[in-house]
Amino acid sequence: MGTKITNRERPAPAHGRVRSPAQLGALFRAERKRRGLTLAEVYDATGLSTRFLSEFERGKENASLGRVLRALESLGLEVLVFPRPESQRLLRMTRSDQNEKADTTAEAREP
Hints:
The protein is mostly helical. The protein has helices at 21-34, 39-46, 50-57, 65-74, 84-109.
């Protein structure tokens, strides 16, 4: 335990609204995979068992909130709670930013 998790750079996944344990687990798994990490590497950094981490990624509903937050923190993710109208606005802004970055990257690659 205590191993520092590093980011093995890959394109960022889309982050978004979470309305179920399965959606939160899927976002966590996507970020873990994006970083090229195994469950064992996340265990080494957090002390959370690979069984727990696997169940969390699969959306098991009885996962402890404290352990879920520790797992998210280990990948640099956090939970933000907003009233629905505000969260809708933030999601639109985030998607717009992602589209602009993709457009800029595509333009830079053109000959």
